[in-house]
Amino acid sequence: MADLRARFAGIELRNPFLLASGIWGESGESLKGAYEAGAGGVVTKSIGSAPRPGYPNPTIETYERFGFLNAMGLPNPGIEEYPREIAVARAAGVPVIGSVFGADADEFAKLAERMVPTGICAVELNLSCPHAEGFGSEIGQDPAEVEAVTKAVVRAVRIPVIAKLTPNTADIVELARAAERGGAAAVSAINTVRALAIDVRLRRPTLSHGLGGLSGSAIKPIGLACVWQISESVKIPVIGVGGIQTAEDALEYLMAGASAVEIGTAVAFEGIGVFGRLVADLSRLLDELGIPAAADAVGAAHHVAARSG
Ligand SMILES: Cc1cc2nc3c(=O)[nH]c(=O)nc-3n(C[C@H](O)[C@H](O)[C@H](O)COP(=O)(O)O)c2cc1C
Fold first, then answer.
1. Measured from the CA of 188, which atom of ligand 1 is nearest?
2. Domain holding 59: CATH number?
3. How many domains are contained in the chain?
């Protein structure tokens, strides 16, 4: 039986599958449920300084057969309330990565500091949400901001800092390099891809916010290309996210250079049972391919590309 353990940035997980931020991470019970269903760990919803209701509906719609177009507007209960939920998951032994979003380096650092006592094993910086004014990719498209925010958080906490990057930029590699310069222990890529749908009968965008972010299988090749390029350009580990539905998708990300992967839209479509399926299928797939451990697959496609190129 293949060894599925994942190790990166000083974090050890029983398998490389993490629950992605913003999906199913509403409560401590739901975080715990994802772990009990087989996830190696979970990433919380992105939490800000104050509670936010998010945008008015419609905030999400199904795109084609297996994707979402969303502009939720970062709804969250705020940093006063949410640590209570993390505590529920931590009490059950769940490895929790806390996700935070702020308007500037100082706010990010304060939020991260507030989350540390809950026992999170790392903090993920949402520098990449494509549809919230003043937050996310508005900051995260600028390498100087990515570096400054990362540096401020690294100074404020003693746990690994993961910068989650946006694909909505000319060069995601520059963002990854900026995160590395800022002291990030890892980067995750990608958040959703800026997108739009129009209701021709109403003559207006389908989402109340207009522009949104695309997730699901349509963005997998984009995420893979980002992980591939980043892993060739920085020394810190990469966490892959975007459109993973099957063990083969996950293995593609590992071979492109990801040390672990996050699963979002597939959880929303299939429920948390997706984790048990992915774990069993990845184990079988690695056995079939004669790969003894998931860790052996990390970056494997680069070596082959180098040999044949
Ligand atoms: C409804 C929804 C809400 C999301 N909320 C967040 C969030 O709060 N913070 C964040 O960093 N990413 C958020 N994301 C992005 C996902 O974590 C992930 O990066 C993206 O959806 C691509 O992965 P997927 O194709 O597996 O869903 C959200 C995505 C969706 C679909």
1. 19
2. 3.20.20.70
3. 1
